[in-house]
TrEMBL record:
Name listed for the protein in its UniProt record: Uncharacterized protein
Origin: domain of life: Eukaryota
Amino acid sequence: MTRGRQKLGETGGIRASKNKRSVSTHQFRLDVVLFFIVKSMGSTLDKFFSYLYGSQLQTKRTSIYLCRKQNDMLLQLCNSLSLAKLRKIRAVGTGSILPADAAVHIAKWVNAYRTQGIPVSF
């Protein structure tokens, strides 16, 4: 009998991802669109999405048509390597960053609790 903790499988304990959906990068979408412009839809689906079948192929077909409409935007995004690696572009200001005055207000609020002896962390 071996000593120590037993491995969970052949991968040594790395579990498979439970994510059901995967979002492709802008560069991958651009590659698909450029291939589709030169070739046909069938060959594009065979090359990039050979693992899909049935209704999944139909869904991917509509998303390829949508990406083709966004071809100009994808070309602009893929000019920058850092943007080409991203999966989603959000407008400026839609992140979860607090304004400076709100951060100062929260810091004062937390410090007020700390002066009362209440343990607070943020």
